[in-house]
Amino acid sequence: MFHWLEKHPFFFAVGVFVVIAFAGLIEIVPNFAQASRPVIGTKPVTLLEQAGRDVYIKNSCNACHSQLIRPFKAETDRYGHYSLSGEYAYDRPFLWGSKRTGPDLMRVGNYRTTEWHENHMKDPKSVMPSSIMPGYPWMFKNSADIDTAYATQLTNAQFFGVPYNKPVPMKDGSTAVVKMADSVAGAHAMALAEAKEITSKMKDQNVKDAVARGEIPEIVALIAYLNSMK
Amino acid sequence: MDFYEFAPYAYFFLIVFLVVGSYSYIYHLYKNRKDASGVDYEHYSEMALKDDIGDTPVKPVSRDKEK
Amino acid sequence: MENRPLEYDYTVAKMFMLTTIVLGIVGMTIGVFIAFELAFPGLNTIFGAGLAEYTNFSRLRPLHTDSVAFGFTVSGIFATWFYVGQRVLKVSMAESKFLMFIGKLQFWLYVIGVAAAVVTLFMGYTSSKEYAEFEWPIDIAIVIVWVLWGVSIFGLIGIRREKSLYISIWYYIATFLGVAMLYLFNNMEIPTMLATSAAGETNIGDWFHSISMYAGTNDALVQWWYGHNAVAFVFTVPIIAMIYYFLPKESGQAIYSYKLSLLSFWGLMFVYLWAGGHHLLYSTVPDWMQTMGSIFSIVLILPSWGSAINMLLTMKGEWQQVAASPLIKFMVLASTFYMFSTLEGPIQAIKSVNAIAHFTDWIVGHVHDGTLGWVGFMIIAALYHMAPRVFKRELYSKGLMAAQFWIQTLGIVLYFTSMWIAGITQGMMWRAHDEFGNLAYSFMDTVDVLHPYYALRGTGGLLYLVGFFMFAYNIYKTMSSRPVEESELQNASPMGA
């Protein structure tokens, strides 16, 4: 049996492939349709939040921060309600992380503010004296990539049917609509409007000036994303 | 029982079946000391030890009909 | 000695030996640097605030993991394939111009791919999925390199003189197929330039940016099916291929049991793929998957220990060789670490243990006793065994090799012991409640206690890196040391003092 396979490389390779592909087929494929239904209250991200999510990914924040609250008392006490599958329905890619060098961020929008994030991202030790997190001062200078964020939104809508410009049900029975721009120029205007709301609560004069000039520093987008995590 | 419940059971019993199958095959090899073409299975480890290009292969590829 | 016109041709093996060493140095240096960044955060800006964007922990972490996994380890796999493959099939690459060309093409494309990967990761272009961070153009390059390797494997098998495939070849074939399948499915992504806005604009934003084809929980499922099995098919399967060849060859002992190797091979193939679920315990994937991930992780002990015990028993009656040869020491310790981490892994996959261990440094410790002790030592041993044969020189220094062995072993021990303590301490502190049912510690408290362990871990890593530099130096000097007669090269590798 096996001895015969060892002399016939082609059938050997087929045998190995069947054996290793099997588990994946059973494990992954049947679950696909079920897991991707959003729970009520889950909205797609707005344009500026998407740009912030890209900043989060660009700097591998997920190397140290998880976005997954496990169903234990210690975790729900610390971070809030445990995670539900449907809450991730629009996450491409998922950002659960695998290591908590820093705390979980799944619901950070519930207990941190724009002001806190601004101070913390510039110099973490200013708000957490013994923090080992590095500062991210370049985020106050680099501009967020609104074009790519817009393209990401479009891809989500066109290839995966993410409901932009469509009503999504909310927990209180109402519906909400997350708008997506019609053109690149429209997208920039939309992002800038969102950015102005954030900067109204920020102190950094350079960031305020940049937004007044029509630029959007990465930090503004990142804070928009962090605030949206509830 | 729907498919999602059925799949893990099916997989589990398949594994059990395969484990039993491969153990009995190994037992068979130990008992007979030789494989289907009459070579002591352990003899194949010579492939690593005598691997100079001039060494005779343990079981040469022959273009003739096998056996 | 008869005059043989035909010889094995190690050109491609030599090229990949070079990248193994260079990328090993790159990956491990970054690793040591970021380990010390966690202990002493001031290091994040040591190269100046201007460069901080490129030298901070989060930007460098994927560079570390990818350069040791896909640089050091994959180069080592290729280097040993182009050495072992010819020998156990008894066919020389010099016999086929086509295969020689494919081999060299594979090398140069690989180098280009690595360069592109390093640059883009520094710039922050990442898909965020662990060990699959590369964006789609690099993914395509990787697939091409991999297909070329497949052509090499099956091309060489096609012209072989030895009819039966040796154990190592089984494992190389499994590596090829396993990584191909996993990589393709995990990296299914849609480039965002394909989208069209309502105003009809296309090619918006960065052309190389893409998003995953799967969302949320499904994405996590596919990622850890990949992530766990990337460990299987990069850090386990090909390394077993190496030890099944190099340990018997170096010691001159036949494998303890060929039959046992057969059982462990098919056992490993059947079971490994299922175990990925243990990365997602208590997450939002279905419960039955988590349970099966847990169960099969424990079943996995059997085939893993089958291989490891087979290796240790191969040395039966020849244990004096372990004392005499540092090269055998590397391999015996590698298989011991293999047993150790394949026992540790299943323990961490038990649900109640995982509740404490997950997200902590214990996991980091587990990965590193596998990679430093098992993968690193085996590749180092393989290259030491190959060096006298491909350069036709004796190894430069046995004493240096022995010193390297002890320094690196000490480094590994410091590494995993500090990470165990750090991980379990932090895991327990996170869940501690006081008498009123409130959390006993703030998150910051649980970070403060880790400082000494982070410093120790960095030291352990530094020792391992120092050993790796000794290795590189030893190989470099080997290339210019005393030539050897080919007849000396049957088993034990010739070594200078």
| 3D shape of chain C | globular
Shape of chain B: elongated
- Main β sheet profile of chain C: 2 strands, antiparallel
Count of DSSP-assigned helices of chain B: 2
Largest sheet of chain B: none
How much strand of chain C? under 5%
Low-pLDDT stretches of chain C are: none
Rg from Cα of chain B: 20 Å
> What's the number of extended β-strand segments of chain C?
2
Beginning-to-end CA distance, first to last residue of chain B: 51 Å
Instruction: Please report the number of helical segments of chain C.
Output: 18
Beta-strand segment tally of chain B: 0
Helix coverage percent of residues of chain C? Answer: over 70%
Helix content of chain B: 40-55%
Largest interface, C-beta closer than 8 angstroms, per-chain residues: A-C, 89 and 95 residues
Strand content of chain B: under 5%
Structure description:
The complex is a heterotrimer of chains A (230), B (67) and C (497). With 230 residues, chain A is mainly alpha-helical. In chain A, 47% of the residues lie in helices and 3% in strands. Chain A is globular. The model of chain A has no long low-confidence stretch (mean pLDDT 91). The longest helix of chain B is centred in the N-terminal third of the chain and has 30 residues, at 3-32. Chain B is mostly helical. Chain B contains 2 helices and no strands. Chain C has a domain at 1-165. Chain C has helices spanning 11-39, 52-55, 57-89, 97-123, 136-158, 167-186, 216-235, 237-251, 258-272, 287-299, 301-314, 320-324, 326-349, 351-357, 361-391, 398-431, 443-448, 451-478; strands spanning 189-191, 210-212. The longest helix of chain C has 34 residues, at 398-431.
Fold topology:
The complex is a heterotrimer of chains A (230), B (67) and C (497).
Chain A: H1 2-5, H2 9-28, H3 32-35, H4 47-58, H5 73-79, H6 114-122, H7 146-160, E1 167-169, E2 175-177, H8 184-199, H9 205-213, H10 218-228
Helix pairs in contact in A: 4-7, 4-10, 6-10, 8-9, 8-10
Chain B: H1 3-32, H2 46-49
Chain C: H1 11-39, H2 52-55, H3 57-89, H4 97-123, H5 136-158, H6 167-186, E1 189-191, E2 210-212, H7 216-235, H8 237-251, H9 258-272, H10 287-299, H11 301-314, H12 320-324, H13 326-349, H14 351-357, H15 361-391, H16 398-431, H17 443-448, H18 451-478
Antiparallel strand pairs in C: 1-2
